[in-house]
Amino acid sequence: MTTLTPVKKAETPTTTGIPASQPPVIGGNFGLAPLAELPAGSRARLTETLRVWLAEQGRLGQVAARLGVHPQTARYRLARLRELFGEALDDPDERFWLELSLRVAD
User: What is the pTM of this model?
Assistant: First the structure.
């Protein structure tokens, strides 16, 4: 008797490393992996900046106001986030998974 094994569809990881057809590993905050190797202070600042940037839908003036920082500081932090997350910040699906990861991390 021959048993058939299902064929798995090839998955290409997205810029956050999460396959497009699969949600992130919630327990490990997989979507936030680029922040993991930063020093604790930088990680906290950039995590909060990412959280506020997602909530404000990228409106830099409001991001700076909510964070209580100068707009140039908010721009610098966003540039750093872009270095870490790349194109994920421009993709609505990726932003969804990032926001979900942030909410689970709370």
Answer: 0.73
